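can u do me a favor
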């Protein structure tokens, strides 16, 4: 068998359509760090192709020319990591276009450099700490959405906070409720160990929620969600106003590599 990234064996027989679908599935799981929404649902990704030699090329854009460099680099790095985890992929290039730091970011990505190495003294934080900060915020947003749903169904605070992770995953819910549970459990480990007998609902420090403080806890968390929802609507509006979303996008970065297969 042929080998891909890090010498992994690549199973034979995948069609180009299968590979393309896998790439987009990976990108679907990459979130805007601030909004906790998929970069594909937000229309950030404009192109994702794989060539005959299993090299993947991704192009993306952001709502404004001045979106924060660390956010931009973080999303590009997450795309590269997600696609690079596929066992058949040999290499991944991710290119940002129409951005004030596009050339710098793209050069750093192409050379495999970190955010700090790319921006030097301009980098005021490392990506790992930034990623963790926004994972915690995503955990909180998903938690408040699920808690609000369970309360609306008539479950008492005492019943909710007593749930284990196993019990939470087995609740008889409608499709909307099951989706909220699934999304919450995707981020539950951010707040501590997520074993089956562990508490279903904890705060960001891993402490089990208390029934008598649940209302105040939810009120505080909803402020996080309101800000994110406003920012999400703003981003969509800015993106739609800035770009014709029906026309294929061509990045203008001078460091953009040639398209695969050319």
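np, heres the sequence
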């Amino acid at each position: 068998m042929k080998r891909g990234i890090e010498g992994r064996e690549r199973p034979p027989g995948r069609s180009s359509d299968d590979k393309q679908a896998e790439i987009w599935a990976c990108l679907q799981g990459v979130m805007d760090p601030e909004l906790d929404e998929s970069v594909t649902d937000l229309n950030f990704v404009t192109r994702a192709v794989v060539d005959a030699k299993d090299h993947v090329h991704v192009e993306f854009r952001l709502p404004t020319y001045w979106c924060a460099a660390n956010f931009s680099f973080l999303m590009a790095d997450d795309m590269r990591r997600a696609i690079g985890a596929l066992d058949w992929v040999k290499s991944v290039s991710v290119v940002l276009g129409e951005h004030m730091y596009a050339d710098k970011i793209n050069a750093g990505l192409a050379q495999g450099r970190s955010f700090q190495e790319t921006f030097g003294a301009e980098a005021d934080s490392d990506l790992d700490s930034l990623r963790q900060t926004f994972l915690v915020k995503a955990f909180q947003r998903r938690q408040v959405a699920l808690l609000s749903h369970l309360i609306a169904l008539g479950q008492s605070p005492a019943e909710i906070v007593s749930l284990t992770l196993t019990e939470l995953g087995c609740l008889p819910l409608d499709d909307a409720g099951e989706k909220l549970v699934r999304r919450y459990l995707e981020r539950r480990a951010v707040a501590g160990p997520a074993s089956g007998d562990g508490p279903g609902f904890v705060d960001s420090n891993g402490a089990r929620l208390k029934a008598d403080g649940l209302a105040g806890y939810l009120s505080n968390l909803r402020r996080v969600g309101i800000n994110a929802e406003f920012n999400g609507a703003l981003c969509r509006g800015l993106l739609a106003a800035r770009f014709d979303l029906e026309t294929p996008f061509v990045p203008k970065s001078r460091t953009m590599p040639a398209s695969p297969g050319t």
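The two ends are 26 Å apart (CA to CA). hope that helps!!
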